[in-house]
Amino acid sequence: MKAKLEYNLPDDEFEFNCAVKSTKMYFALTEIKDEIRSFIKYQELKENQYEIIDKLRDRFHEILSDNEINLDRC
């Protein structure tokens, strides 16, 4: 199976750039996810800092889910 995307440049430049940079976006989001995990697992933080990071992690995953993005199945 093949898929072909066509863009009318410069009118569709935003959509084109999103498609072209999607792999970089995936790796950036994965790196952010890993950084959050690393903070929780390896950093010595105060209890309220863990709570903040935990809320941030939950919100990060909620935003991904709301946009139908699953970093584990790309």
Write the layout of secondary structure elements.
Layout: H1 13-20, H2 22-42, H3 47-66
| Cα Rg | 17 Å
- Overall mean pLDDT stands at 93
What low-confidence regions span 5 or more consecutive residues with pLDDT below 50?
none
Structural class: mainly alpha
For the termini, the CA-CA separation is 18 Å
Give the strand tally.
Answer: 0
Q: Secondary-structure element order, as H and E?
A: HHH
Provide a count of the helices.
3
- The coarse overall form would be elongated
Task: Tell me the helix content.
Answer: 55-70%
Main beta-sheet strand count, sense and barrel state? none
Q: What amount of the residues lies in strands? A: under 5%
Q: Gist?
A:
The protein has 74 residues and is mainly alpha-helical. It is 66% helix and 0% strand. The radius of gyration is 17 Å and the shape is elongated.
Give a description of the structure.
The chain is mainly α. The chain is 66% helix and 0% strand. It is built from 3 helices and no strands. It has helices at residues 13-20, 22-42, 47-66. The longest helix is centred in the middle third of the chain and has 21 residues, at 22-42. 0% of the residues are buried.
